[in-house]
Amino acid sequence: MTTTEILNPFHEGERAAQERVGVGDMATLVGGFIRDHLPEQHREFHTSLPFLVVSGADRSGQTWVTLVEGPDGFATSPDPRHVSLDTVLGADDPLAAAFDAGTDIGVLGIQLATRRRNRFSGHVRPEGNGYAIDIRQTFGNCPQYIHERAVTREETIPGPAARSDALNENQIARIHAADTLFIGSGHPKAEGAARGYDASHRGGAPGFVRAASPTRLLIPDYAGNNFFNTIGNIVADPHVGLLFIDFETGGLLHISGRATIDWSPKGSHDPDAWRMILVEIDAVIDRPGAVPLRWAKMDHLSRRLKIAKKVRESDDITSFYLIPADDRPLDPFEAGQHLPIEVQIPGQRGTSKRSYSLSGPPQERRFYRLSIKREDKGLVSRFLHDDTREGSIIEAQKPSGDFVVPCSNCPLVLVSAGVGLTPMLSALWANVSQQDRDVWYVHGARNGAAHALRKEVNGLIEASPKLRQLVFYSQPGAEDRQGQDYDVKGRITAESLLDLGAGPDARYMLCGPAAFLAGLQRDLETAGVPLANIYFETFGPESRADASG
Fold it and tell me: Which residues form the FAD-binding FR-type domain (predicted)?
């Protein structure tokens, strides 16, 4: 694969969708996040899972999505460009014959208990007693709209598969009760690395997918990462596959059809939808008890928290101090983790879930602090900013996330832009008393009015000789003074990070918009920083950890 292909990984359908919504520069901005191999963290992630979600086409050209599972350790990765599967698909699986012949596929690895997910595409072929996958492209994803579930194994006897060309009443009822689906799409005629299939997760409140008729489904498309992999595939090739999992019985409901996009849905069943995917059903395969996996919702782990205080930190960022609504102590968290919350917004069907980085000291046990940016199109952030008051109650899960300080005493370079400062502030609190670690904090903001929590950061920097700070303003205001309010006019670059002199053992933790991170990550790697030493957390509209949704 050439460098150009890596930096411009989108096919014409994806580019058309991006252009339509005004993000036509995505290839330049995020090419560094799309690779031709699995990073080490992704290899460890995919091979730790009990199942993978896979999309592809059968030998007649119909697109399907299926679930591939096996015993613990069934997936291995002998090297960054290959994954091996020690399992075989059942004879009634819609992709079994294609796997046996060799075919292009898209793969989603998803850990419902922690809401982590990563994707890759490639070519699967028979190998030994299972299959081998040759990697083509890999992607990371934010855990939006994922309902947490814990997975267990249970002996099961699969029932006979039922095939039809339309949904029956029972299947429609199951779809209307579902809060999760997996969608597969592809562009098998695309050139280069963009060719192939994609498997993607969709989630929402129960009923978010609506059956308009036994042969037509309406699927809302929410704000996302602006890659438009699914939407772009549909623009180029309308064939799609859907998979609904019966989490209690292990049943799989497969649907194959053709999709179109309603770019401006009016009066739809879901007011949160930015677009609507309309699927005309061609074929249905219902496989009761198809897999020996069961998933249990983790809602019982949630608890009620009360907003004790709201503090405005900048023009568009407010901090929310949350305390227990009961007498139970708060669960501890590590610097860099986020807090999954759930709110009931008047006029909305069901509850809305988001995750926001914890910005307070991890050693603090009296409260959690979330510093949240108000986004004009952010349903939850607008509600929290505009409609909650001190004393308002929200539901929250335990803190989670793996964007944490990676080592005990290695040099650490914390880099953020905008509201990406939230996990970095928590990391500064965690290191303020550290005597054997050098820490540099590099932050970029538009100007002083947009620079949140700077007094708190300055206080931490002054409190420890091991903490140092470098501030960039891209558009300083008239009242901003260089050398006092900020250090450099412009944007953060890899060169400026390397000039810090953190050394070859330094770990770089990056948090900010995808466009900001992709260039930094790519340039750091080009300069010789090992990928294993770079950690990042990205965000976009309605995403998790920066609090932008």
Answer: 300-406
d(CA 105, CA 86): 17
Tell me which amino acid residue 439 is: V
> What is d(CA 113, CA 96) in angstroms, rounded to the nearest whole number?
28
**How close are the terminal C-alpha atoms of the chain, in Å?**
36
- Nearest 10 degrees: Cα torsion 484, 489, 494, 500: -30
Each of the 549 residues of the chain gets a pLDDT tens digit; together they read 333 334 455 655 556 655 665 544 444 445 556 788 898 888 999 999 999 999 999 999 999 999 999 999 999 999 999 999 999 999 999 999 999 999 999 999 998 877 788 899 999 999 999 999 999 988 765 555 567 778 899 988 999 999 999 999 999 999 999 999 999 998 877 666 667 899 999 888 888 899 999 999 999 887 655 566 788 889 889 999 999 999 999 999 999 999 998 887 876 777 677 788 999 999 999 999 999 999 987 765 679 999 999 999 999 999 999 999 998 899 999 999 999 998 989 887 778 888 899 999 999 999 999 999 998 878 899 999 999 999 999 999 889 888 888 888 899 999 999 999 999 999 999 999 888 899 999 999 999 999 999 999 999 999 999 999 999 999 999 999 999 999 999 999 999 999 999 999 999 999 988 777 878 888 998 999 998 899 887 765 443 333 333
Structural domains in the chain, sorted by start = 3-296 (2.30.110.10), 298-396 (2.40.30.10), 412-539 (3.40.50.80)
Going by C-alpha positions, the residue among 471, 473, 418, 483 that lies closest to residue 447 is 473
Instruction: In whole angstroms, give the CA distance from residue 104 to residue 368.
Output: 46
* Distance separating alpha carbons of residues 389 and 525, to the nearest angstrom: 45
- Specify whether the CB–CB gap between 300 and 282 falls below 8 A: no
SS3 132: strand
3-state secondary structure 414-470: EEEEHHHHHHHHHHHHHHCCCCCCCEEEEEEECCHHHCCCHHHHHHHHHHCCCEEEE
In this prediction the pTM is 0.70
Distance, in Å, from the CA atom of 493 to the CA atom of 442, rounded to the nearest integer, reads 10
